[in-house]
Write a structure and sequence with these properties.
By secondary structure, the protein is of the alpha+beta class. The protein is built from 5 helices and 7 strands; from the N terminus they run βααβαββββααβ. The chain is 25% helix and 35% strand. Strands 1, 2, 3, 4, 5, 6 and 7 form a 7-stranded antiparallel sheet that branches.
Length: 155
Amino acid sequence: MGDEAYTIQDYVHDEAVAFAGAMHPKGSLAHNSDEMYSSDRYKLESWNPEDTIPVATFFYEKYSPKKAYFYVASFTETQWKESHMEVYSLFSIWWNKEWSHWEKIPEYCCSVISEKPQPPLHKEAANWMLKRMTTEGSGFADVDYFRKGKLEIFK
């Protein structure tokens, strides 16, 4: 793996699978609507997994009159041959003006593979995913969308 102790790469499954794994690390994929939709953003945040950290905000007035909030959470992948694999889910809480409520949406995901256990790498994984989402040629379909608004990445 070179000089780095870990490698960040695309997760083999899509962002919905990673999101479900991060939201329900014990394996239950069932959720109630309180976890996903609310007129109160803070109520939705209260349902975030324990290890969730806020990583960015995004504002694009044409789309929504309110900021979107981005978070990252993780879960440990145990089904792969690598001795250590952590999956990170980047998700957001957006205001849906059509339905007049906040909703949680999976945005992107990645995996961190290492030969030895690593401390939590939420910030590193979030920065990697946000860069891919906002870089021309990255393959992320909505890259132009982010160029039209204001993305603020937390340090």
